[in-house]
Specification:
The chain has 173 residues and is mostly helical. It is 68% helix and 0% strand.
Length: 173
């Protein structure tokens, strides 16, 4: 007798061959992968702290990278969270879920930097215009102060005190 398909228990499709050592997907990451992921996340955390300490990375950007390192540590240590994320996005393998998360993260970082770059470009243009206006104003002020001084110098000499022939004059006297 055939059963209604809605009443049948769903069958689970295996996700590839079992990993060496007989681990299944629900057992977590294999030990080697887990330690590599934890080591990379730790190195990333140390590198970010060192870059901030040397003032090569600003604190506001370091929060993103520290958060990323901590999330990687948690996902490596707590496999059920990674498995939940994998099921949430519909990925077959946990590594696919990690790559998807990395892709989304990098897209968000690129978007954030694009917004900051746009803002800095606008500020640079505004500052360049302000500097040009201030430079023009300074030049006008220098010209105004130079004109009265030149007119004052010409009035103090008078017409009788005109300079005589110079050393290279054509007059032999």
């Amino acid at each position: 007798m055939l059963q209604d398909p809605a009443q049948q228990a769903p069958t689970q499709v295996p996700i590839g061959p079992p990993p060496p050592g007989g681990l299944t997907l629900s057992d977590g990451l294999p030990g080697h992968q887990q330690w590599v992921a934890l080591a990379l996340a730790s190195l990333m955390l140390i590198a970010v702290v060192e870059l901030v300490r040397k003032r090569k990375l600003r604190e506001e950007y370091s929060l993103i990278w520290i958060g990323t390192a901590l999330i990687l540590m948690v996902l490596a240590w707590q496999y059920p969270l990674l498995d939940h994320f994998r099921r949430l996005i519909g990925a077959v393998e946990p590594t696919s879920a990690l790559f998807f998360g990395a892709l989304v993260f990098l897209m968000l970082v690129a978007l954030q930097f694009s917004v900051r770059l746009s803002k800095l470009t606008w500020r640079n243009r505004m500052l360049s215009q302000r500097v040009a206006l201030l430079d023009r104003e300074l030049q006008e002020l220098r010209e105004q102060t130079a004109r009265p001084a030149a007119a004052e110098g010409a009035e103090s000499r008078g017409p009788a005190e005109s300079p005589g022939p110079g050393p290279h004059s054509d007059d032999p006297s």
